[in-house]
């Protein structure tokens, strides 16, 4: 029977397109493409640590010693977890190879999720505001909220303090995916550190591979919860672990990198706004440029490539935009070259006109500043949430039919993890029951 492709891709709201093929990266500021050198205007390596000689040497040393195999319990894993606990003041830390595989281990049909999040959690009840979240969490059986603290596609921050208050009032858990690792906060601990909300978050998921190079994610939380999850997911390779550990150390000891990153973002954001570009609610080094048309976005990407600029775009129909994220390693001369390319191309291609742009100097979310978002045109506020589940929590269809509706939380968590075949083959029943016990204990403590 033929399957409608639209049904398979209905949760895909857009896609990222890069305007050049990257053959080599001689530095964090430049890439080589088809024999030419292009200036980097959009990167995940915001601090330039992915190209740092010390980080590469740490990775090469680990590669020579342990190869590319992923092995649980390596010294490199223990060192990274210990370093994360020390740097971020966390009770427990765990590093896993697959960030996107963490949430499926939890009973996601008993969780709510903010609709603006990039990551799809189909079973979670979608909410659009702290008030909406509080109403969802009031339903019997709801365990907590999944929140993405940073919105790189818009450049602003989630209203995490208000969402945290809603969770506290409902005695619910707050699970935060924080893409601000290495960028936000006094030591680069992310948006939660920046907002001083560490004590109000049950589980922090800090993806690696951005400003802190590596793969997978760091999980910060209570030791009993992390111990229950330990072994459920494989760790990254020793090479990746060593690179992440060295990069964390450098990012903390060389705070000037983070300061320079915000200086570059401030100058770029001010220059774009002065020239009439719509940068939306941006208060972070992730700077979007609204174009509002997919074909126009592709034209801009092609034009920038011709002018020697490597850039990314978010192709999402009428919500298309350019995604700028300039690295801290850009010199003032290179920054001027980037701004000049935008100015030259704006004379050739269309620049959408909006009537509610702020002409004030941009304020960024530097340490000590609690800007959450800038004044933006109305089209930034009309986020199209994914298909919303009813707020009344139901047991998903993947739950075995024989399971009654009134299962205990321990049994629900156990059954959710048990349905994952790879999980059942790699971890014994004792470990599964430990996961259920740990989650149950956390929730009971919050309800007292």
Describe the structure.
- The protein has 448 residues and is α/β, with parallel strands linked by helices.
- It has two domains: 14-46 and 256-380, Aspartate Aminotransferase, domain 1; 54-252, Type I PLP-dependent aspartate aminotransferase-like (Major domain) (Aspartate Aminotransferase, domain 2, 3-Layer(aba) Sandwich), CATH 3.40.640.10.
- The protein has 14 helices and 17 strands.
- Strand 2 and strand 3 form a beta hairpin.
- Helix 7 runs antiparallel to helix 14 and helix 12 packs antiparallel against helix 14 (429-447).
- The longest helix is centred in the middle third of the chain and has 20 residues, at 255-274.
- Residues 393-414 and 417-429 have low confidence and may be disordered.
- CATH architecture assignment of the largest domain: 3-Layer(aba) Sandwich
Work out the helix count. Answer: 14
CATH superfamily of the largest domain: Type I PLP-dependent aspartate aminotransferase-like (Major domain)
The CATH class of the largest domain is Alpha Beta
Biggest sheet layout: 7 strands, mixed
Residues in helix, %:
25-40%
**End-to-end CA span:** 53 Å
Shape: globular
Task: Please give the domain count.
Answer: 2
Across the major sheet, the strand order is 5-13-12-11-8-6-7
Number of DSSP strands?
17
Strand content: 5-15%
CATH topology name of the largest domain, in short, is Aspartate Aminotransferase, domain 2
In a few lines, what is going on in this structure?
With 448 residues, the chain is an alpha/beta fold. It is built from 14 helices and 17 strands.
């Amino acid at each position: 029977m033929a399957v409608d492709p639209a049904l398979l891709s209905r949760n895909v709201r857009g896609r990222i397109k890069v305007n050049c093929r990257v053959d080599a990266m001689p530095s964090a500021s430049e890439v080589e493409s088809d024999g030419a050198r292009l200036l980097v205007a959009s990167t995940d390596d915001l601090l330039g640590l992915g190209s740092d000689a010390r980080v590469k040497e740490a990775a090469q040393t680990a590669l020579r010693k342990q190869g590319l195999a992923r092995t649980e319990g390596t010294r490199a894993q223990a060192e990274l977890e210990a370093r994360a606990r020390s740097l971020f003041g966390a009770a427990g830390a765990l590093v896993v190879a697959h960030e996107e595989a963490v949430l499926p281990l939890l009973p996601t049909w008993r969780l709510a999720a903010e609709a603006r999040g990039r990551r799809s959690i189909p079973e979670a009840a979608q909410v659009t505001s702290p008030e909406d979240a509080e109403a969802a969490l009031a339903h019997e059986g709801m365990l907590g909220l999944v929140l993405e603290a940073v919105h790189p596609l818009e450049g602003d921050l989630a209203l995490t303090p208000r969402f945290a208050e809603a969770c506290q009032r409902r005695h619910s858990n707050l699970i935060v995916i924080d893409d601000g690792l290495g960028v936000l906060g006094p030591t680069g601990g992310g948006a939660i550190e920046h907002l001083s909300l560490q004590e109000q978050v049950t589980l922090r998921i800090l993806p690696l591979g951005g400003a802190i190079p590596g793969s997978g994610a760091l999980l910060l939380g209570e030791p009993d919860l992390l111990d229950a999850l330990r072994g459920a997911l494989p760790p990254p390779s020793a090479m990746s672990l060593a690179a992440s550990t060295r990069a964390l150390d450098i990012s903390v000891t060389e705070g000037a990198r983070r300061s320079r990153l915000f200086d570059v973002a401030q100058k770029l954001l001010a220059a774009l706004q002065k020239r009439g570009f719509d940068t939306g609610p941006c208060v972070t080094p992730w700077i979007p440029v609204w174009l509002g048309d997919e074909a126009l976005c592709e034209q801009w990407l092609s034009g920038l490539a011709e002018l020697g600029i490597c850039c990314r775009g978010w192709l999402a129909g009428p919500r298309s935009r350019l995604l700028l994220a300039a690295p801290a390693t850009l010199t003032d001369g290179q920054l001027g070259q980037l701004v000049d390319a935008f100015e030259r191309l704006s004379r050739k291609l269309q620049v959408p006109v909006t009537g509610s742009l702020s002409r004030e100097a941009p304020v960024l979310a530097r340490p000590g500043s609690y800007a959450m978002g800038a004044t933006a045109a109305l089209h930034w506020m009309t986020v199209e949430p994914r298909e919303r589940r009813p707020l009344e929590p139901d047991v998903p269809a993947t739950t075995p039919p024989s399971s009654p509706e009134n299962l205990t939380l321990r049994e629900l968590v156990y059954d959710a993890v048990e349905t994952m075949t790879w999980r059942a083959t790699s971890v014994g029943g004792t470990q599964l029951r430990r996961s259920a016990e740990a989650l149950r204990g956390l929730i009971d403590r919050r309800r007292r």
